[in-house]
Structures are given as structure tokens and as C-alpha cells.
Amino acid sequence: MKKFGKRLMALTMVGVLMCAPLTAFATEVDEESSAQGNITGSGDVEGIVNKDVFKVVLPTVAAGDTTFNFILDPQGLIKDTDGSKYTNATFDAAAKGLYFANPQDGGSTKYMASSPALTATNKGTVDVDVTLTATADADSLKDADKGYTIGLAADDTFANDKTTSVYLALVSGDQTAALTADGATITDTLAAAPSDAYEVTYNSTSSKYEYGLTAAAQAADYTGFKSLDFNLTGACNTDADWAVAEDAAPSVNVAWTLEKHIDELTYDKMKGDTSAITVTTYDAVKSAKLVKFNGAANTNPLTIGTNCSVSGTSFTLLAAWTTKITAETVITLTFENGRTQTLTINVIDPTATPLPLTYNRKSGDTSAISVTTFAEVKSAKLVKYNGAANANPLTIGTNCSVSGKTFTLLASWASKITAETVITLTFEDGRTQTLTVNVQ
Predict the structure, then answer these.
(1) Among 260, 282, 317, where does a domain finish?
(2) How far apart are CA 272 and CA 221, in angstroms?
(3) CB hemisphere CA count around 118 (13 angstroms)
(4) Three-class secondary structure of residue 4 per DSSP
(5) pLDDT per residue over 148-188, tens digit each?
(6) 438 near 398, Cβ under 8 Å?
(7) What is the per-residue DSSP string for 173-231?
């Protein structure tokens, strides 16, 4: 019996050891006073990729480019001779004495009233501001010895005008800006690339994550990027006496600048609040000037050190001055490179009830819908959709977007609105504002 008992005990202990977990160890404490322990874990940053990508495609301009070269023919000599001076060329009959060469495939040339267009494209993940300028060389427009000056006309009609003059204008989309002595300027903004145009990948060679265009976005047939075309158009005053200006050679320079978009700044100040106002700006502010003060137009400068202070990209309106702000105030902030950013200060009355908003759109319009709201919208929910009751939420970033007090129903969703649609907009403090979209 004793031998059997020892064997049984040995077998039992072996069984216990074999069944115990191999990777866990436990300490059993029978003390009644206390028991404690600790363990430290460490974390590693997987990686960081820059998703703020500035990537643009500028027009290709080779040395000696003739895109904006033009011919002045005030007496209609080309038309009278059927363009016999030029081989493989046709002339636009509607052109008014000024022709731009438009080379065609096959070696022929069309001489038109407008120049060929150049294109700029935004392939980055940020919106891009485009500034187009055209300036006429002042010296090329006059000759003191011969006694002529070529004027710059405001349009191509030259109504009751006998002066030696030309009309030149910068054109982009639906914008046209005629050249004056100060030149011509057109501004526009190219939206960022669609979110699905970029992806994160891991580069095993560099052992780093990378953020770049997808294969689809790099394909030649990809149409997701926003582009802008621009060109020159012109005319010549054919009723003027150009005799003394026969050898005139007026010239014009066209330039383009693409820069990261600067968002406008909005600050909501509660009525009665007398504290300083601090915002983060695009760059270090060099000067500041009022556009509107307490609801009225104003052009007074703000003095850094007296009305405001600057520390890097932190701009502060000092409390001694902000106490005077009782209604909407707008300030233009100017940076070292001459670019500007607008700061709008709204004075919010916590007891005020936001007034309903109404937006009327034409039937068939599929564009986005933007309105200025009482305060920054935090959430949106349908009350009525295309004439029928509805209680679905709208997702910011999918159905709509918010930028300060600008609330936008994105075109992809707004295009579905075919009848009265009512939306409740809710702000941070819980107050609401109703937006009604009428379809007419």
C-alpha cells in the first residue's frame, strides 16, 4: 500500500506539471497585509508621412516660345490679299485686326483673335491659389521721336475712338481682364486632388512609409485633378491712323503663380468678452489693416505693439483694443512675401436666436450649395428631403463641409436635391439654425 501510494503521488505531480501553461508564471501570496506588482511597456512610433502635399504642373514653355506673339493688321492687308504672304495658313474672319498664331497638327497655322491656351494643374493634397498677370511693356507702346503712342482699350468695340490703340485681355474660364497701364490680373483656386488619388505605401528598401499618387492617379487618362486654362485675346483699332506707328512692336508679358491656398480665419467672440484674441496665421504677420470695424467699412492700419502683437505665426489682438469690438470686424493680415490672409471677428450674442436660412436654386442645377451660418456648424440633420419628411444625419466630409461659418452641401450630394429640402444645423453651444433649400 505504501509503495502504491508513492507511485500515485508521483504520477499526480507529473500530471500537474505537464498541464501547467508553459509561458505563464504565477506567484501565490498568502500574506494578508498587501500585495503589489508592476510592469512597464514601451511603444514605438510606426512612422509619420507628410500628407500636406504641394504638387502642381505648370505650363511648359520652351526657349523662344511664341504662344503670345501677335500680328497687328490695322488696314486689313491680310484679308485683302487672302493671306498670300503666309503659306499653309488660315485667318479668322471674325478677328479685328489682331491675330495670334495657333499652330496645327500637320504644319498648318490658324491665325485667331485669341492665343493658344496654357494649362496649370493641381495634383497635390492642398488647394492652390492661382494668380495670372499680364502686363504690357510701356516702352514698346510709344516712340517719342516718331510721335506715336499705342493706347490700351477697355474693350474691342473702339466705339467713337480714332486713337491708335489695341485691346488685349487675359482670359481664364469665365473671367476676362483687359490690360490697362497697371496690367491685368485674374485669380482663382484649384481644389486639391480627390482623397482616393493618394495612398500610403511601405518602401522596404528605405524601411519607411511613403505617401504618394496611386497608380490610377498617375495614368494618362485620370481626370480627377483640377486644371485651369488661360490665354490672351485681342483686337486692333482699325479706324485709327497707324501710319507713324508702322514699325511699332508692342509686347506683353504673361506670368503665373501657384501657391498653397490660404484659408480665411474666423474668430467668434462672445458679446461682452474683453480678453485678447489670438489666432494662428499662415505666416508671420508683417502688417495688419482694418477692412471693417464694428460693421462699418474702415481702412485704418493696426500698429504692431499697440493694437496687436506677433510671435511667429501667432497673431494677437491686444485686450486693450479688442474691448472696443462690438460687431463684425474684418482685418487684412499681410506677410513678408506680400500675400494676405483675412481675419473676421464675429460678435456672438449668447441669447440671440439664429435666423432661418433660405437658398433658392434653379431646377437642374447640380453645383454645390454654400451658405454663411450663425456660427460654425458641428452637425447637420435632415428634416425634409425632396419634399418628404426625413431624419437622417448628414456627415461632414461626405455630404457637406464646414469652413468657419461657411457651410457647404457638396455637389455630389446637392445634385440629388430636386424639391424642397430642410436641414437643421447645430452649433457647439447646442443652438440650431434651419436651412431650407428651395428648387425653382
Answers:
(1) 260
(2) 57
(3) 19
(4) helix
(5) 999 999 999 998 888 999 999 999 999 999 999 999 999 99
(6) no
(7) TTEEEE-BTTBEEEEEEEPPPPGGGEEEEEETTTTEEEEEE-HHHHSTT---SEEEEEE
Range of the domain at 333: 265-348
Residue closest to 342 by CA, chosen among 50, 56, 129, 121:
129
- Asked whether residue 5 is domain-assigned, the answer is no
Q: What is the pLDDT of residues 204-258, one digit of tens each?
A: 999 999 999 999 999 999 999 999 999 999 999 999 999 888 889 999 999 999 9
How many domains does the chain contain in total? 3
Domain boundary among 320, 348, 376: 348
Q: Which residues contact 386 (CB under 8 A, 6 or more apart)?
A: 416, 417, 418, 419, 420, 421
Q: Supply φ then ψ for residue 180, to 5 degrees.
A: -125, -175
- Residue 190 sits in the same domain as residue 294: no
- Closest to 216 (Cα-Cα) out of 127, 143, 279, 123: 123
Same domain, 287 and 336: yes
Do 63 and 209 have their domain in common? yes
Considering the domain architecture, whether residues 215 and 305 belong to the same structural domain is answered as: no
Q: Note whether 138 and 230 are same-domain residues.
A: yes
Q: How far apart are CA 298 and CA 58, in angstroms?
A: 38
Q: Does residue 25 have a pLDDT over 70?
A: no
